[in-house]
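Let us practice reading a record.
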Amino acid sequence: MSDLNADFVQSVERLFGNRATMALAALSQHGHSEVHYEDALPQLVVYAHNTEEVAELLKLANQFEVPVTPYGAGTSVEGNALPVHGGVCVDLSEMDSILAINQADLDCTVQAGVRREQLNDYLRDTGLFFPIDPGANATIGGMASTRASGTNAVRYGTMREAVLSLRVVLPDGKIVRTSQRAKKSAAGYDLTRLFVGSEGTLGIITEITLRLHGIPETISAAVCPFNSLGGAVDTVVQIIQIGLPIARVEILDSAQMRAVNRWSQLSYAEQPTLFFEFHGSQAYVLEQIETAKLLSHENGGGEFSWADKVEDRNRLWKARHEAYYAAVNVRPNAVGWTSDVCVPISRLAECIELTQHELAEMQVPATILGHVGDGNFHVIFSIDPTSVDELRAVEEFNKRLISRAVAMDGTCTGEHGIGIGKKACLLEELGDDVVALMRSIKGVIDPKGIMNPGKIFDL
């Protein structure tokens, strides 16, 4: 890693003042990942406040050919925001203004640094909410960049469906808006979808226009233990196949439930478990519940434990959202490694069953959980970071799991993105020609290769 050009640094400092820093604490914060990847520090961190500042910075970076890595909340788990080639890290967390709420149109426009929970707190009095819920209190810009998903995806979709329009700064500093606010459009190439999921490799997303939804009249959540993981998975598959419009359905295996009880000080049955949530009118929710109960009981499910009050639902989903930390911390000083495969719903039971059998032979503590309503599940390992053998064993397991999912016409990543960890998997899944096409697109938009280099594929 070469030193930054002095003229570049001086120009950035003139532009940003004390919001440009080379302090080691800031560099360390922006070069660290919560998971198993090694730290990779930038040489300069800049805190941007608006699109125009980002544009001026990228003009300078493009001129001096300095690598640029966008950064939001730092919650990504595939090293997506690690500045592996150094350079400048653009922190967008202070771009946290909610710019417009179009209540009649059920949409809003926010800056990239707005957090998911912040947006929903702001929306509460409007009767609207933003449903994409990846668990972490991520920034909206980061969620768009990684095409995030989460617990509500089975009913409300992912960021791919939620984003209507983007304001993006291109590598040369040009500012573009990818579309208007209309709910549909056939006007040219779908540039919005091109940038959603691009992980900052094509430009920096600074503003996002999002679909919103009305807060349901009735929301009811429940927890149901099962005799077997297979019975829980079969229940979910049947719920989806009959078209029951369930809002959330999450699976946690017995090891994950033990970890959750310990971490969140709860007392759920330590069996394979489904977390449900139902949205709609009171009568419609009752109808959904009765169907879900019937299917659950036919597949070895126990009694439903209900959470109807807001505070009870929040406690239940807080425990689910903390499941990653619960799984990693089953032993001290561990780091996490999480898989992210997604398969067609008809192959889900088979994929999880084969994965469970293989995990039984592993010596590294691991749990299974996931958004199984859309075929997406995770294996979370608690790894001793000093053990080369453990890291190698988990890496080989993850390769086998991805190959299994791809063979089932699935994907290596349902929601976490490629980052630095799954570049070879992208080639396995899509092939050389498709990845070459992606490289061609990158080369046209970012000919100097300054935008988040080292992510998705190598140039």
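A brief commentary: The chain has a mean pLDDT of 95.
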